[in-house]
């Protein structure tokens, strides 16, 4: 194969892999990491720190998503909703995605090393968390909580990157992220109830049914809102930050209003559009309020 053809094949694999892991959805988690960094610094951290926090976030999420697609590829192939994903469809090879995962982990650990000794020391915990989530659906309905935990590392990790310690304030923000993520993952899992049951996979909708699962998701988001209020009260972001907390509450209400047990047709709108707004709104308002001094 010519060098040109080899290069073309590699670029194709990279593009397909980035599409497969929905690299643009890093938008969901990155604002929370940036908010954690701003809260830690009580202002804008230096550009060097922000750069490596961003690289660490991209590396960790890329590794997590690629690994998830790898270990779930047989389930994806059997599920009508996911059978056209890149790996089961043969659009990209397993060896390439495996290599992409390894490189992404290396990028994350390297970025953690560039921040401080504590972020590096804790990086294995983060790696085990973001990769381990992919196996949890095989043995527990609390897989949604495991996903929430994996994403909740971002703001606490960013706080540690800036200050080298950990206090109640970033833990409340991380709790908000965990509960928020767990709740929307319960919603998302409602569309796979029949497949999960037939494949022997665990989920809250599969165990409790869609109607009860929706109530559980609501409960998780109520708890998320409470934790968010606690974080806001410690953040010093004042009325500007409070406005974002209120908007977040309204977005959560909207998210649950458009998803019903007998009608999941608007689930994608609830899952993707609303969630992207939540993280951006909180970064702009709470982060902005911190920068303005409340």
How are the SSEs placed, and which strands pair?
Elements: H1 3-20, H2 30-41, H3 47-71, H4 73-78, H5 86-89, H6 94-115, H7 117-136, H8 143-163, H9 168-189, H10 193-199, H11 204-208, H12 210-235, H13 238-257, H14 267-291
Helix pairs in contact: 2-3, 2-8, 2-14, 3-6, 3-7, 6-7, 7-8, 8-9, 9-12, 9-14, 12-13, 13-14
CATH homologous superfamily grouping = UbiA prenyltransferase
CATH class: Mainly Alpha
CATH topology: Tetracycline Repressor, domain 2
Number of helices: 14
Biggest sheet layout = none
Poorly predicted tracts of residues: none
**In percent, how helical is the residue content?**
over 70%
| Domains (count) | 1
SS elements, strand count: 0
Shape-level CATH architecture: Orthogonal Bundle
Radius of gyration (CA) equals: 19 Å
Which whole number gives the mean pLDDT? 91
Which term fits the overall shape?
globular
Order of helices and strands: HHHHHHHHHHHHHH
Fraction of residues in β-strands: under 5%
> How far is it from the N-terminal to the C-terminal residue, by CA?
61 Å
Look at the helices and sheets and give the structural class.
mainly alpha
Architecture overview:
This protein has a single domain (10-291), classed as Tetracycline Repressor, domain 2 (Orthogonal Bundle). It is built from 14 helices and no strands. The protein has helices at 3-20, 30-41, 47-71, 73-78, 86-89, 94-115, 117-136, 143-163, 168-189, 193-199, 204-208, 210-235, 238-257, 267-291. Helix 2 (30-41) runs antiparallel to helix 3 (47-71). It is globular. The chain starts with a helix and ends with a helix.
